[in-house]
Design a protein that fits this description.
mainly beta; SH3 type barrels; OB fold (Dihydrolipoamide Acetyltransferase, E2P); 5-stranded antiparallel β-sheet; 0% helix; flat
Amino acid sequence: MFTTSDLRKGKKVKLEGGLYTVIDFQHARTAQRRANVWMKLKNLKTGAVLEKTVSAGETFEEPDFEEKTLQYLYNDGTNYYFMDGKSFEQLHITAETLEETRQYLMESSEYRVLFFEKNPIALDLPTSIVLKVIGTEPAVKGDSVTNITKAATLESGLEVKVPLFIKEGDQIKVDTRSGEYLERITNR
């Protein structure tokens, strides 16, 4: 059990029979009233977003998750296949379950997968990931005066807006929460 004071972005919550992750929250107090907490929650099974206001200090049940590190193997369009490196057991996760996270998957990389009641329900990605640029337009000399961006396609298939100085072959860091460019990685 935990209370509203323990809320953090990304925290998993069991609420009204559903499993949710906290997207955003805010403590609010008005004059002569009890403090409230506004929460924006995302259902881990359906992907639906729910906004809920509760009294400050209310307790929540913490779901009993199991977390395993699995290696991503491949996808066949509808399922994504992973392998447990210890038991070599393979399992598949549907494309709907991985809706927003599948664009960050790279073959042969390891990812933390959340299980609830022995069923995979979500990928727990790091906050940023390094990917290689495989396609982008060349920069035009003289366009660097303003903060202009261009589209770039990354090795995972993800498209992001990057500054003009990024070229094919560069490695960039991308925020997995927003899908935005963070920085170019230089090899020294």
